[in-house]
Design a protein that fits this description.
Elements lengths: L2 H13 L1 H4 L2 H4 L3 E8 L5 E3 H9 L8 E11 L2 E11 L5 E14 L2 E12 L12
Parallel strand pairs: 1-6
Antiparallel strand pairs: 1-2, 3-4, 4-5, 5-6
Pfam families: DUF4440
Organism: Tunturiibacter psychrotolerans
Protein name: Nuclear transport factor 2 family protein
């Protein structure tokens, strides 16, 4: 399996609601020195992300597109992609640009850094209503 496909599967696992809420499934994917700059502007470490995920409200999984990887070193990979969140009816409700740094250590890949940046909704080409 190509490294790009493998890391995309790991990212999808981290976005899967069934996995996100189970610390025993999520913790092995996250490095002990993990840091995240969330789309909310908050900063998370491994302990805080595991606690927040346990209490996260159920929601449909996000879909990943434009997934790409860049090797920073043989054991360090930067993954970038667009995440689209959907409501229960399957309608897209938000998008964000995502970047993750994955490190290979002790025979496994773990996420060591993540950042999400919201993508603003498209502007109406007609512009704001005239007053």
């Amino acid at each position: 399996m190509r490294i790009e496909d493998h890391l995309k599967q790991l990212e999808e696992r981290l976005l899967d609601p069934a996995i996100r809420r189970d610390p025993a499934l999520v913790a092995p994917l996250i490095a002990d020195d993990f840091i995240e700059f969330g789309a909310s502007g908050r900063v998370f470490d491994k302990a805080s992300i595991l606690e927040d995920l346990k209490n996260e409200s159920p929601r449909p999984a996000s879909r990943l597109t434009d997934f790409a990887v860049r090797e920073l070193s043989p054991a360090i990979i930067l993954a970038t992609y667009r995440a689209t969140r959907f409501n229960a009816n399957g309608v897209a409700i938000s998008q964000s640009h995502r970047s993750s740094i994955w490190a290979h250590s002790d025979g496994q890949w773990q996420i060591t850094f993540h950042q999400g940046t919201p993508i603003p909704p498209p502007q109406d080409p007609a512009g704001p209503p005239q007053k």
